[in-house]
Structure formats: structure tokens, C-alpha cells
Write a structure and sequence with these properties.
The chain is α/β, with parallel strands linked by helices. About 40% of the residues lie in helices and about 15% in strands. It is built from eleven helices and eight strands. It has an eight-stranded mixed sheet, sandwiched between helices. Helix 1 runs antiparallel to helix 2, helix 2 crosses helix 3 and helix 6 packs across helix 7. It starts with 5 loop residues before the first helix and ends with a helix.
């Protein structure tokens, strides 16, 4: 297997975040890897392998899983007729229903629990994020892994299509939809107004945006997500826990300004930088970037934070 250099990781990151189309990415990867054959050998390592996703089995005896839908009222994304091939439903056939669907998990025979909204990466609601929801549930919470591609008929199986669809979402409307989800959960007696959120990459950025949009959110955990503006930071009421990867130059570029804005606003927050790791270090379906030591430590801190901030 050819070595995976930092330059190749950077290149893949640019591709997955829309800076390069697939053809440009493959051409650049071939040059960086030393040829098309070497690039082909690297692709399976760079991509997510969802066969590795079920750390917690779907039928784990301690859990029950379910589906849920949240009515988001008059907040509806515009669905353009040129949605990429691979969307779960033809855009022309969609009713523009103002609904966010979610995959849920909770400990069996327990219903009165704090709620945690799990927000996916820019690949949508996939097997890895569902597994994260099950992990959250096993720690004593009711988890709701939302599918923010619900307006497009749900997350497509093709990752390229999912990323393209994510790029069509309006950030402010998405944050407003998430705010509606949190509002509805906070009003349920089963959650006692204790609602948190955790997000990864794109979802981490949406936790920042959600915290600014919904004062009912009690706690937010951000894994290497894009920061909110200083104006938005001034509206945040939730406590925040922020995880950064040392090698994640794209996201880290906004960290200092964001922390200054959070301090100025009096927001209670804690941030950690994990040395020597890449963006998406928590994603254990990605062999190129996953770092078990950092992921385990960040997870331990995440659960401790939620238990403290969401306690009844």
C-alpha cells in the first residue's frame, strides 16, 4: 500500500468539501501518489468503509431503535430541478414537505432521558452516524440522528450525490430547522427540557449555528466544525465543547476568532486540540484519518460533558 501523505489527506479533504470535482481530484491524486495504479490502491483507504460501521449492532439487546419525524413548519429549502443523480427521490416529485426525519435510539425500557441530537457530516445520515446515535444511547441518552437531506427524499446511498445535495442546503434555514427540532424535544416531558446536540464536520458547524439559533439548547459538542460568526456567538446560550484536529488547517483557521467571540459573549465553552491528527479523526470507518486514541479521549470528554450539562 502506498504511503498516505499529509498532502494526499489535504487533497481528499478538498474533494470531500467541494473544492475539487471528482475528475480533478483523481487526476491530482494520481500525480501525488505516483500514478493511476497507486491512486486506485489509495481510494478504498481514503473512502469511508461502512462495513466497519456497526460498532454497536442494530439489534443490540440493551437498545431499541426507532424513527421519528419533526414538523418544521414553514421552513422549507428550495429544491432545484438540477439535483444530482442518486437523490433518493426525483426533486420534481417531492411535495416540499417541511419535515426532518430522524433515526433514533434509546436504552430499552427507559423513556425519561435527556435528548441528544446527532448531526451528520456532509455525507448525510449514513450507517456510521446511525452507529454514533446508538453509542450515545448506550451512555444513557435518547439519541436523534437527524437527516437534513429529508427535503430531497433522504440521504442517497451515493456519497458524491449526498455531498452535492448538502451543498444545496441553505445554512440559515437548516439551522432554523434544527432549532425547531430542539424546541419540540425540549417541550416533551420525557426530556425535562434537557436537550443537547453533537455534530461532526458539516454537522459540527451546524451545532455552532444551532446554538446561535435556539436558546433552548443546553449543550453542544462540535467535532471539527466550521465556526459561527461573532454576531451569532453573541446569541449562544448553550455550553459548548469543541474538538479540533491539529492538522486541520481549514477549520482551525477560524478557531482563535471564534473563541474570542465566545469569551466576549460570556459563553461557557471548552476546546481541545488533538495533536498529530487529521480532520474527521473520530470517523472509525475511514482508515486514512481515524485516530483511535484521539477519538476515545474526545468521546470520553463528550459523554462526561453531556452528563454534566444535561443532568435532570
Amino acid at each position: 500500500m502506498p504511503p498516505i501523505s499529509d498532502d494526499i489527506i489535504r487533497l481528499y479533504d478538498r474533494f470531500t468539501h467541494g473544492e475539487l470535482d471528482r475528475r480533478s481530484f483523481l487526476e491530482s491524486l494520481a500525480r501525488a501518489a505516483g500514478g493511476a495504479a497507486a491512486a486506485s490502491a489509495l481510494l478504498p483507504v481514503l473512502a469511508n468503509d461502512y462495513a466497519r460501521a456497526a460498532i454497536i449492532a442494530e439489534d443490540a439487546p440493551r437498545l431499541e431503535t426507532f424513527t421519528a419525524e419533526f414538523d418544521t413548519g414553514d421552513i422549507v429549502d428550495e429544491i432545484t430541478p438540477d439535483a444530482p443523480a442518486g437523490a433518493a427521490t426525483s426533486p420534481a416529485a417531492l411535495p416540499h414537505a417541511p419535515v426532518v426525519a430522524a433515526y433514533g435510539a434509546r436504552p430499552k425500557k427507559e423513556s425519561v432521558l435527556p435528548a441528544v441530537v446527532v448531526i451528520h457530516e456532509n455525507r448525510g445520515l449514513n450507517p456510521h452516524i446511525k452507529d454514533v446515535a446508538r453509542r450515545v444511547a448506550l451512555e444513557g441518552f435518547q439519541a436523534f440522528a437527524v437527516d437534513m437531506l429529508s427535503p430531497y427524499g433522504g440521504t442517497p446511498a451515493d456519497e458524491d450525490a449526498a455531498r452535492a445535495l448538502i451543498g444545496k442546503l441553505n445554512r440559515d434555514k437548516t439551522a432554523a430547522k434544527l432549532a425547531k427540532v430542539v424546541e419540540k424535544l425540549a417541550l416533551l416531558k420525557t426530556h425535562q427540557r434537557m436537550v443537547g446536540a453533537v455534530g461532526f464536520c458539516w454537522g459540527g458547524g451546524m451545532v455552532n449555528a444551532l446554538a446561535a439559533a435556539q436558546p433552548a439548547l443546553k449543550a453542544g459538542v462540535v467535532y471539527y466544525g466550521r465556526q459561527a460568526s461573532a454576531e451569532e456567538a453573541a446569541r449562544i446560550k448553550a455550553a459548548l465543547l469543541i474538538h479540533y484536529a491539529e492538522k486541520d488547517e481549514r477549520i482551525n483557521a477560524g478557531a482563535a476568532a471564534y473563541e474570542a467571540a465566545l469569551k466576549a459573549a460570556g459563553v461557557k465553552y471548552k476546546s481541545y486540540v488533538y495533536p498529530g491528527v487529521e480532520h474527521a479523526f473520530n470517523n472509525d470507518t475511514n482508515a486514512a484519518r481515524y485516530n483511535k486514541e484521539a477519538a476515545d479521549l474526545a468521546w470520553k470528554r463528550t459523554i462526561k460533558f453531556f452528563r454534566r450539562k444535561l443532568a435532570f
